[in-house]
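Protocol step 4 of 6: record predicted structures for both targets in the notebook before any analysis. Target 1:
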Amino acid sequence: MENFHYYTPTRVVFGKETELQTGQLVKECGCKKVLVHYGSGSVKKSGLLDRICAALEEAEVDFVTLGGVVPNPRLSLVYEGIRLCREESVDFILAVGGGSVIDSAKAIGYGMANEGDVWDFYAKKRAPQGCLPLGVVLTIAAAGSEMSDSSVITKEEGWVKRGCNSNYVRPRFAVMNPELTMTLPAYQTESGCVDIMMHTMERYLNQADNMELTDGISECLIRTVMKNAKILLENPKDYEARAEVMWAGSLSHNGLTGCGTDGGDWASHQLEHELGGMYDVAHGAGLSAVWGSWARYVMDARPERFARFAVQVMGVEDTRNAMETAEKGVQAMEEFYRSIEMPTSLEELGVHPTEEEVRELARKCSFDGGRTIGCVKKLDQEDIFRIYMNAR
């Protein structure tokens, strides 16, 4: 077992109609003016934005609004948000949406609390020293950004997708009403389920001496999401299944499933970030498209770990040959992805990169050959290229 720090300051308000408490929750944070940040017209059409604004007015909290966040949130809107917040003297940000909206809100918060270009933090040129406080009303169970320390932004110039992690951006509160996710398209729901699973699998498939309790929590979380992902494919209005998945999304990325490990591998996420940046694909779908190719490329470095995953999570019979059992586990996971209509290759994802484009993906992912990714097996630019090619 590795030493670890576990920090989760986010207050969770979970259940039906909890969004009606938003005004009071914001007021308790002691702010004077709020930016209500959201995505497309769905929060308007559903009436959610009106309910949030009414709750703020009832609590006598002043606010301004900024919509327009898209999947793989854009740096240009972050800049617009920072400008608006400065003009309006905003001191709190309320994200109403899913991971993309929350990530955009976090980036705006960074820009408000630090001098210079906010992109510097995502380009790893310097580290943030603070963030404007923020809260969340969650509408999509997927990214776990409502309790995490992470934010991912896409820069349109060059279509580069990068992340920044710090405890400064952990939200003060997260309002979670599973009913708000019931209108999501099936593809978005199932893509979210993959993202939740992968946040746990990235931490689980590692090179550490793992903690048995954390392993058990992780295994149960993945199995629970798999079970409920299938239920939601058939019955998207199932409240209990929505609730299980929503809570799993938060627990998968608030640090709990990494306690006692080395922090995890995260290569699959890095591989997907470049796909998201270049082709604007759904994050979870991009993850499922590359995961099998990554797993087969690295599992010989930790076959016993992949074999445990196969047995404990996928229900594969232990063949007493770690590599054989591990391969059966990868096959079983790919079969599961297909059962919930998620892709297991770039072709199934709808992306058809040329070899030249694959080399560009590998160049970006390796930061022009300046870094390796992953910990199960450290992957350089050539390794990354081969995994992308195998994923085609």
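Target 2:
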Amino acid sequence: MHIHILGICGTFMGGIAALAKSAGHRVTGCDAGVYPPMSTQLEQLGIELIEGFHSDQLNLNADLYVVGNVVSRGNPLMEAIMDRGLPYISGPQWLGENILRDKWVLAVAGTHGKTTTSSILAWLLEYAGLNPSFLIGGVPENFGVSARLTDSPFFVIEADEYDTAFFDKRSKFVHYRPRTAILNNLEFDHADIFNDIAAIETQFHHLVRTVPASGRLVVNGKEASLERVLQRGCWSEVETFGADNSLWQAGEQTECNGFEVKVGGALHGNVSWELLGEHNRNNALAALAAARHVGVTVTDGIAALASFQNVKRRMEVKGCVNGITVYDDFAHHPTAIETTIAGLKHKVGDARILAVLEPRSNTMKLGTLKDQLASSLTVADKVFCYAANLGWDAAGSLSALGDKASTFEELDTLVRAVVAEAKANDHILVMSNGGFGGVHGMLLSALVAEK
């Protein structure tokens, strides 16, 4: 079958393209921004890419059009498809019906940590010899790709609560029908499509309804929002993690970033790994619990964590100049910002952290969480916020931080300010869910020039 994918260069749709190609389909695609690294990855797979959404792409005579949620009414190619009465389907629905239908799906849902937890879970299964398929919204360093299709019965998927397509406003994850589901956490986000947290809880309960009675829910025991979700009805086995009364707990922290793993109060071993912070310990517990559901022993899971290499753009070191280390991290929600800084602080001790932030997500651009931003940054020693194209007063929102916070409308000016402030042994933590104008490279180049 010839599949043409609209919006192919997003991580999710690019992953679907790779899976469809592996499944034996001819795959082509288009996007408004056909650029590396996704364009390079797809071209290496032999997938033809077209810039833009021109209606003449119907001349490809595809058998099916798979539509990403970046596409809306008024898109010229989409309008032509509809006018002609040609077959189209959303990416999540195509995935659920054509790839996941015969798999044991392990889905990882939550406001935060989906990519990291999915990557850990895929690695636990890989280490145990289960050779899982996966589709993850990032690139796990252990695999080097965001998606792959194998003959294994197991499929690990990052289960996003964002809506499916312009013609299907349900969350993507309702199409996946998992047998094992991690509910990592649940906070208010995606203010562009959800009115309040109750609306998101409804979508999470839709996910819960799709898990069979023989399935398992692995749930963060500290989250009142998830407790409310389960109170609406639950028909599957539940194992909790993270809380004092949870089945799965992280015990005493051992040397470096290690920690004890306890199940039902019994010590099962000590994790030794490089990841920072309580949030990552909870990610590990959730992955261990989900992996045990498919037969991976806790002992093997703990051993696998020692060789887990994290995900690109999760506290990724981009370079070190004159003793100044520059990191890249995907954090953009206030909770993720706070836990990311806290994890780095635990690692670096008394060394200074210079936080460089771009409030880029739709929720942050709307200013919905602006009142939480200052408190999420209190542990940082200096804060540099890129405030261009915001519809709210970033300087006002950060005023509680006093003179340690600065806002900038020009990227060059921000870079100069960070470099002027930085000194040996500082840690520059760049946080954004986008490319941030290549600021990481700009910072490193400017630091080199300061030698």
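Step 5 preliminary note on target 2. The mean pLDDT is 90. DSSP finds 15 helices and 23 strands in the chain.
Proceed to step 6 after PI sign-off.
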